[in-house]
Automatic annotation (TrEMBL):
Organism: Bifidobacterium jacchi
Native organism taxonomy: Bacteria, Bacillati, Actinomycetota, Actinomycetes, Bifidobacteriales
Molecular function terms, GO-annotated: phosphatase activity
Protein name: HAD family phosphatase
Alphabetized Pfam families for the sequence: Hydrolase
Domain of life of the organism encoding this protein: Bacteria
Length: 222
């Protein structure tokens, strides 16, 4: 990667789960354990359905779908407790993600996170993999009016906080719905492969500006 080819007037906006972090397996296990405690098998479509939702939306959907007596707050607290240990100790970065972030940052490029993860999970995970100081802005769907990634709000918020126009931003995402939203407001979008998105991979490849299996393949220019 040639440093001179990266424009400091541009920005990269990164998803965490499934993009920078090899973490989607954590949620699969949380889903299995959580529903298993209640004698419920995880339906085939459940994980795909909730993948793009924010935390409270997932809780409300889960309660409605399985007719659970819990409140959203009780579900979120239980999930938090189950996931916090894994995010702080088990989750690792995707291949060459840390190196790519440091290289971009060294050129003066602006970097942001746009995630659905709450602070209680994203902060220990980012610290664990050593990327907590890499970003100029960290925003979540909660900061963007609780609007999930089916809308571009969280990406636009990240761009505003970086002071970069949307058309000068490149989004790195693993979710089709996120890639579609970013592209809808003129951002470039590169897709990171994650097993959780295998069902959408063909559509992702058709829509994204590029695809990655490893950040060693990340674009030289933003």
């Amino acid at each position: 990667m040639a440093d001179s080819m990266i424009n400091a007037g541009k920005a990269a906006i990164f998803d965490l789960d499934g993009t920078l972090l090899d973490s989607m397996g954590v949620w699969d296990q949380v889903d299995l354990d959580f529903l298993g405690r209640r004698g419920i098998d995880v339906p085939d479509d459940y994980m795909v359905t909730v993948a793009s939702m924010q935390f409270r939306q997932i809780a409300e959907y889960t309660i409605a779908r399985f007719d659970l007596p819990d409140t959203p707050e009780q579900l979120m607290e239980e999930w938090d407790d189950m996931a916090r240990v894994a995010y702080a100790t088990v989750v690792e970065a995707k291949p060459h993600a840390v190196e790519y972030l440091h290289r971009l940052r060294a050129t003066g490029a602006k970097l942001a996170v746009a995630t659905s993860l709450p602070p209680s999970l994203r902060e220990p995970a980012m610290s664990h993999v050593g990327i907590e100081h890499c970003f100029d802005a960290v925003v979540s769907v909660d900061d963007a009016g609780d609007v999930g990634k089916e809308s571009p709000d969280v990406y636009l918020l990240a761009a505003r906080r970086l002071g970069i126009m949307p058309h000068n931003c490149t989004v790195f995402e693993d979710l089709l719905i996120g890639i579609r939203s970013a592209k809808s407001v003129g951002m470039r979008a590169w897709a990171m492969h994650d097993d959780s998105s295998d069902g959408d991979w063909s559509a992702i490849c058709d829509l994204a500006d590029g695809v990655l299996f490893d950040f060693a393949q990340a674009p030289e220019t933003l």
